[in-house]
Amino acid sequence: MSSAAGRWACWLAVSLALSRSVASLELDELFGFGAEAGDEALEPGSDSTAELPLRNASILFFSDSFSKVYINTNGFVSGAKPPAKADYLGKMPAEFKMIAALLGDLDNSDGQGKVYFREDSSPDVLARATEHIRQAFPRDDDVDPTSTFIVTWENMAARGTTGRGDVLDRKRNTFQLVVASMESASYAILLYPRDGLQYLSTSIGGANKPLEAGFNQGMVQGWFYASQGTYYRTTTDEETSIRELTEKTNSGRHGVWVYEIGTTPVFIAITPGMTAKLFTEENVTKPAVTSSPQQPGQQQEFSTSETTTVFAQEEEETFTTVVFAYNLETCANNRQKCSAFADCRDYTNGYCCHCRPGYYGNGKDCVAEGKPQRMNGKVNGRVFVGNSPSPVEFSNNDLHSYVVANDGRAYVAISSIPDSLGPSLQPLSSLGGIIGWAFALEQPGFQNGFSLIGGEFFRQAEVTFQPGNERLTIKQQFKGIDEHDHLVVSSELDGRVPDVPRGASVHIEPYKEIYQYSSNLISSSSNREYTVSLPDGGVQTRSYQWRQTISFQSCVHNEATRAVPPTQQLSVDQIFVMYDAGNQLIRFAMSNRIGGEGSPDTSLSQNPCFTGRHGCDNNAVCRPGEGLQFSCECTAGFTGDGRSCYDIDECRETPQVCGANAVCSNQPGTFRCQCASGFVFASDGRTCVAESRPVDHCQRGSHDCDAPDRARCSYVGGSAYVCSCLPGFLGDGRVCQDVDECRQDRCHRDAICSNTQGSFVCQCQPGFHGNGFQCSPTTTEYSNLCNHKDEHPSAASASSSNTGLFSFFRPRPAVGQYVPQCDERGSYEPTQCHGSIGQCWCVDAAGQEIPNTRTGPGSRPLCIEQTVTPPPVGPTPRPDISPAPPGTHLLFAQSGKIELVPLQGDGMKKDEAKALLHIPDRVVIGVAYDCVEKMVYWTDITGPAISKASLNGGDTIPVESPEGIAIDHVARLMFWTDSMRDTVEVAKLDGSQRRVLFDSDLVNPRPITTNPAYGRIYWADWNRDGPKIEMSNMDGTDRTVLVKDDLTLPNGLTYDPDNQQLCWADAGTRKVECMDPHRRLRRTVAEGVQYPFALVSHGRNLYYTDWRREAVVAVDRFSEKETDEFLPQKRSRLYGVTMTPAQCPQAYNYCSNNGGCSHLCLPRLGGFTCRCPDNSTAAAAAAAAAGRCEETNQ
């Protein structure tokens, strides 16, 4: 037969063998054994041992090498002569090294059972062993064993069952162990044929114990004492795991199991095969067959191509592993598939995406160098804990992670984990730690995961815990970077974990993990040790073995650019784990560095850029220089000196960056383009083209509804629309007529009603005051009190009295020595001064001096007008709120109303400004906004009260007391200052559960702001003798003075979470300043401002209200210049200012679900506190008295 025909016959044989492999392993498919194979036989008995010298090659087992092994009746091979079976049966792990093929109390003394063994280096045996190993480890191309030894246990009985004449007497087990070795590694091949395992347990000590299989390290000698090493069990205490030895596989063939059991020079862990699915006949790529013309009398010949047969895995799991795929197309039609920060390049057989300078990734996903990275996703699972027969199941639990890329520190949090599972997940720091590998701090010449493969990949990890052999599978699908620049992941957990008692803490030792890289596949494995500190003071040391594979799709057309080292080492230290039972939250934190395997420290590797010990901003990249020199450079999308970096507003600086028909939205470090209404992205993913859909006549203005001030056009799909009259009008929507509400007696009986188009207004009659809906007789208690002071000496005397300590040292002049300042209504001006002594002070509506407001020569106090706004000339609108249009707006308070100014980017759309809320007879001071419920909150000193109203329209809802106010939208809390009570207080957003946080060392507290992500509040006190800005946790702990120098009247205060800047406006120094509250870096943004009152941050701008200019002023924080000004139509003092973002800023703290507290949950940095409200109300006092409120620190 010709060589070609021989190859064909060989292929047919291989195909038949592979098609047969779909079924389980048969007895006749074991490696050859018996006398005809050259085997030796073990002496019959129930505990016989024989020594087998290994003359051809030693075996590597764990970290040791053995030139001889010992074969035992009871289903194992050991590295030393084993003791009597009573010392190890039922007492695993044993003190000696053991390969347990199937350990139990076995017996072959009846002569039916045999134990055969031999060393074999014949080519056919080596070839077959190599085939099994390569199928189990398809990435290992260099497998070339030089020797094997084979042990076969045939027809072994369970001890005590022979000669009984019952069914147990007839049950026999047959199994085989093949250990293949080469210079650098040894592999164990375990074969369990179908019908080869007829019993699953043996009697040990009078009790049935399941058989077990695995690899035992025995005692390991440490520096001072020996300890029990790893016992890697491949079965569990359940008999089903024994039966599955014949039904499952890790090498592509049922009944065949392959493990890497030893390596040199470094051993990491026992490593199981990676191929859990069968190889089928359909998976085989058949060689191409061609025929040549057949001559008479000549046998027909066939030739095959030289293509190597390819085996493919069948994937049965439903877990999606979709990744992007390159094809034979060009950039012309695929440029939109690249990142916005990448270039597309054409190659001979296709195209590739390449990140631009300053960015890194695989071209499909690119992120700016040095930029912090966030990861969000969901976690689903079904996990058994300890010996529990029932699993803990959970779904759609939130996973959030954050990495400081320029120092490799990663933080991970998973929410809603019940306390029946949470403590036991603490050892699994790598559940979210893969983001640490993806964005690890890169050492010279090495790249982290994201640099190599981007953000679309599939990761599967197998965890085996010791000593209990519990196993857990982790599957994670990474879906790339979303529109918010967050890496998106979905996770799935399945299996069993050892029990960690509630209240126990876990400490994980630093570890190193070797990552091996090949085309489209990355794998790693490691041993990890952890310590469990029990609530009773006991300490347990445990470990687990970790093996993971990462599959991805790379661009194959430009492999020259992929000079990836075959191995890299991930070093992980500073590991922190915590389960927060009250909040059902598990947290991990760790520092990650990627470098070479065992690479020595060099002067370059000690550079601060590679150790992470630099002072660069979180949004900066560290550039190494000579020796220990380095420089900080703000990452793309930020500007600054590298030590402090600030976001660039690309939308403002390059207005056309998004092109025509598109809207630009600035984000930290980047921007987003969205097509305007009626437009969609074209195939290039960037150009906005008109959307092909039915006409929206309402938007076009081509409808026939009545005028917009009388009717509303509503688009209902297709080209249809509906006309409807606005409130205050009647009709069919095409013709609408005004309703005269005054005929409906809508005003108070002592008010005059005036009808207007679509509405009406009410005005109290002369001699009455109020809002027209409620009118009361006018009192003359304070009317013209100031002008009649000379006629009422008693009033003057009362107003000159002062019992405060300050007045004891600064006596006020007697009556008649000064002339009080009066306004045009005859009321006292809020600020009174006496020129002869050079002092000023604040007074209330009766002229009484307000304590602690007196100033010395050359300065004036910041006094708020205490008298209510007089009724305007003419009717006033109703005291309710008008619905606000969608988008981001500025809100500011002015006397008896709150006005709205829409924002476009960082610019004010001044022509669209309008009154949002009318509050007659009130002085509104502070304004805050809850982005969750779209609710406006304001403080009113004339009440005094805190009130709220929906931004979507509706009546106001009363709450409680003023001056500055701030909202924590995550914990659902409001905080405020009270300058009369000198307090900082907190309550729920409905005003309930009120509690005083601080009532000491406060004189004139006014502005207050929150940082929900850190659980912090900041406030300012414009105490003339010692102005200051303070900070504390939201639970009142860690109160700290942040700023006390160069302050005079710190009025406005705001916190910018994107840039982590606390900014304030000072009416005394006439400056606007900012500082990083963490590093205490302070800088001036604007000087020479007039008289700022309140301040808010948005984008690159700070907006403040100014009393003297009676305007809202915009200042660019980065250029440090005034950029815009808004002057309301009605000119008067402006008070509080806030903004209404279109979406809530992303933040998380421990009280997002009230932390399990019975009443108040108050966040703090790293935890939270459960607190009871003050007993200031009957309900609060009753709850406390009944013991229903519990205070705890978490």
TrEMBL record:
Disulfide bond positions: 833-840
UniProt source species: Myripristis murdjan (pinecone soldierfish)
GO biological process: canonical Wnt signaling pathway; cell-matrix adhesion; epithelial cell differentiation
Keyword Calcium: yes
Name of the protein described by the UniProt record: Nidogen 1
Classification via PANTHER family: NIDOGEN-1, VITELLOGENIN RECEPTOR-LIKE PROTEIN-RELATED-RELATED
Upper lineage: Eukaryota, Metazoa, Chordata, Craniata, Vertebrata
Gene: NID1
Region called Disordered, residue ranges: 287-306
Keywords associated with the record: Basement membrane, Calcium, Cell adhesion, Disulfide bond, EGF-like domain, Extracellular matrix, Glycoprotein, Repeat, Secreted, Signal
SUPFAM superfamilies: EGF/Laminin, GFP-like, Growth factor receptor domain, Thyroglobulin type-1 domain, YWTD domain
Domain (EGF-like) ranges: 327-367, 605-646, 647-689, 694-737, 738-774
Primary location class: secreted
Regions of compositional bias (Polar residues) in chain numbering: 288-297
Domain named NIDO: residues: 101-264
